[in-house]
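Consortium newsletter contribution from the modelling node. Members have asked for a concrete example of what our holo predictions look like. Here is one, prepared for the 2-acetamido-2-deoxy-beta-D-glucopyranose complex that several groups have been discussing at recent meetings.
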Amino acid sequence: MVLLTLAALLGTHLFGGVSAQTWCNKNYMANQSIVPPGGNFPIPTYSHSPLLALRCGPAIKPYLAEDVHSPAAILIDALVVNYEITGAAPISLPSRGLSQAGSIDVTVSLDGKTLARGDVPLNTTAFELPFSLEGLTPQMTPYNLTCSATYSGTSDAKSQSFSTTASLSYIPNPTNSSVTKMDLRTGALLAKPATGLGGEYAPVFPMGFYTTFDGYLSTNLSIVNELKEQGFTVIHPVPTFDNMTAFEEVLDRMQEVGMYLMYDMRFTYMNLTSVTEQVNSIKNRPNLLLWYTADEPDGTSDPLNATSNAYDLIYSLDGYHPVSLVLNCQVCR
Ligand SMILES: *[C@@H]1O[C@H](CO)[C@@H](O)[C@H](O)[C@H]1NC(C)=O
Ligand SMILES: *[C@@H]1O[C@H](CO)[C@@H](O)[C@H](O)[C@H]1NC(C)=O
Ligand SMILES: *[C@@H]1O[C@H](CO)[C@@H](O)[C@H](O)[C@H]1NC(C)=O
Ligand SMILES: *[C@@H]1O[C@H](CO)[C@@H](O)[C@H](O)[C@H]1NC(C)=O
Ligand SMILES: *[C@@H]1O[C@H](CO)[C@@H](O)[C@H](O)[C@H]1NC(C)=O
Ligand SMILES: *[C@@H]1O[C@H](CO)[C@@H](O)[C@H](O)[C@H]1NC(C)=O
Ligand SMILES: *[C@@H]1O[C@H](CO)[C@@H](O)[C@H](O)[C@H]1NC(C)=O
Ligand SMILES: *[C@@H]1O[C@H](CO)[C@@H](O)[C@H](O)[C@H]1NC(C)=O
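And here is the predicted structure:
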């Protein structure tokens, strides 16, 4: 029962290159025959000439209306790679090597207006371009950003152009819920104390394990206190939750002692009616840290769009807490 929770925060479409209805043909039984790609996601095609994988995205997701006067930034990745990963485009580099290849000139724009601009050294990641939220209207629909880059580092003076898109969440302050922000500079989650009694946003190190509910948590509220005393910060109750009275009591006790909740919908995440009911009943809990949808959907080969369908629905119903899942296949990048 004591399994480490390794939560992969689900961004947008991570698996654009996989087209079969199974994700990676992961077998659970030793006696099953190996079917390509045998539990690995496919390795991208090698490219002899260098490619620039330009990527951009906000440093914090989401920004809130109350952050209007706080520093904000767009993160730029300018990776130079030899694999045809998503969005990578050929770049012609000077022969003297990457260390002297200079930088790209990046412009981040929103509806045609420049939001941020700066030079980004080639082959850096998470390079910060500051911008201001002033003048933008907080709204639940994410803003669409365009990040364009030009490179004129080669002697033939012909500048090369690159472009990509990203979304920026700048949303109204919550009226009756907590907020978990993702800090994409570090990967940290930022939240106020789980007690709901107020306090500043601070990094949360989610430390917990898959905790059986029926027949365990449901039977003895003191287990919550014991887990708190042992230094855990999160409880991830594994469904089913047969006794909803007991479930509410456990969540109340978690809040009292300051334990965050990772709310798991592994058996129901493909039933969007059920997801709607569950999200609406839990989303105002002050100690909700994050949602959890699929448990190893790639191993069991759930439909490829099942996790993104659930992700989109949860964002439309809540929008203040990230959506997580756990993968099983091996990822090569
Ligand atoms: C494979 O092994 C499992 C577990 O031992 C067993 O239940 C199953 O029948 C086996 N399948 C085949 C095709 O032999
Ligand atoms: C870019 O940086 C990565 C490490 O961050 C390195 O592995 C890679 O070799 C660099 N690319 C080139 C073309 O030098
Ligand atoms: C961003 O683009 C998507 C997809 O094209 C669109 O549905 C959405 O309305 C756009 N968002 C805004 C704020 O314009
Ligand atoms: C309830 O759990 C606490 C903490 O694990 C334990 O000390 C106590 O003995 C349990 N009570 C019962 C009735 O099992
Ligand atoms: C459900 O949980 C409550 C609170 O712990 C308890 O009083 C009740 O007996 C439980 N119901 C069943 C059917 O076990
Ligand atoms: C989906 O969830 C709804 C609401 O909980 C439930 O009534 C329905 O039976 C579920 N459908 C399936 C196919 O399990
Ligand atoms: C605010 O959230 C609490 C749960 O923490 C809930 O009981 C209450 O109904 C919510 N109030 C409104 C106005 O939605
Ligand atoms: C993706 O999900 C939708 C449900 O929203 C379903 O109707 C559709 O058939 C799925 N598409 C594919 C390609 O599996």
